[in-house]
Amino acid sequence: MIKPKASTPISVQDEARAAEILGRVRRMEVRTNRLVDDSLAGRYASVFKGRGMDFDRVRNYVPGDDVRTIDWNVTARTGDPHVKLFTEERELTILLMIDVSASSDFGSVVDSKRELAAEAAGVLAASAIRNRDKVGLILFSDSVELYIPPGKGRMHIMRLIRETLFFQPEQRGTDIAKALDFANQVIHRKSVIFLVSDFCLGAPLEERLNLLRNKLQVTNRRHDVIAVSVTDPREESLPDVGRICIEDAESGQVVEIDTGSAKVREAFERQSRQRRELTAVRIRSLGVDLLQFRNGENWMPALMGFFQSRRQRSG
Fold this sequence. Notes:
The chain is α/β, with parallel strands linked by helices. Helices cover 43% and strands 21% of the residues. The strands form three sheets. Strands 5-4-3-6-7-10 form a six-stranded mixed sheet, sandwiched between helices. The chain has a two-stranded antiparallel ribbon with strand order 1-2. Mean pLDDT is 83; it is low at 1-6.
C-alpha cells in the first residue's frame, strides 16, 4: 500500500505567511457557507442517500412479513419464527480526490485552477457535513501526495480546504490511475468519490485515456465516482500577441509559437477542443457523471443542475 505523507506544516517563524494562509482559508469558509444555502444542502441530501441498511433488532414474525427477513438462527433457538428489522444507513463517506499537479497552479483570471478546485471541494464538503456525512481527502500528482482519512466537523473541513489551497506537492506530473488505485486500497466501504482534475493527461493521449478508463471502470464498480473537470479559458484559445514561448508546467518543455497567425490560433483551439471532447466521451461512456467547471465563470448553476438531474434519475 502507498504510504500517505504527513500533513503540511506551517513554520511558526513565518508569521506573515501563516496570517495570509489563515485569512485566505477563513474567506474561503465564509464564501463556502454562503454558497451552501438550504437549497443546495437539500439537493445534496436528496441525491446522496444512505447506502444499504443497518441491522436494528429482531421481533416475532407476523403474517405478511417478508419471509426473506426471517432470522433462522433465532427461530431455531426459540422455536418461534423471528424476522430481522433494519434501519436505513444514513451516513455516507465522501472522498475528494484533487489533482495538485503543476498544471493546477495555472490561472489566467483572478484564481488558479487549484483555487477553483478548493472552492468546489469546500462546497461539497460543507454540504456533506450538514448531512452528517464523513469527508476524506486525497491530493495527488503523479503520486499520492497527501491522504486525510474521512472525518467530520468544521475544523476538519477547514483543514481540507487549507491543504487543498496550500499543500506543496513533491512531484509535477499527473497520474490519475495511480490515485484511483490508492483510493481503492484505503476506502473499503462504498463511498461517493469526487475526482477533481484538469485532466491534462499528456501524450500519448489515447494510451493514457485507455488506462484512465480502465481504472475508472474498476473504481466506479466499487464506489459512486463523479468526475469534475476544472479548466481555464486560456487553455482553450490563444490571444493575438505575436511570438511567445509557452512552457508545459508538468514536463518543463518550452515551445515558441506565433499567436499572430490565425491558422496557429485556430489549430490550437481545434486540438484543445478535440482533447476535451475525447476525454469527456471516454469518461461518460462508463456511466460516470462529468461536471465541467471553467475558471472565471459561475460554476454553481452546473452543480445545482447536476444535483437536480441526479435526483430525477434516482426518482
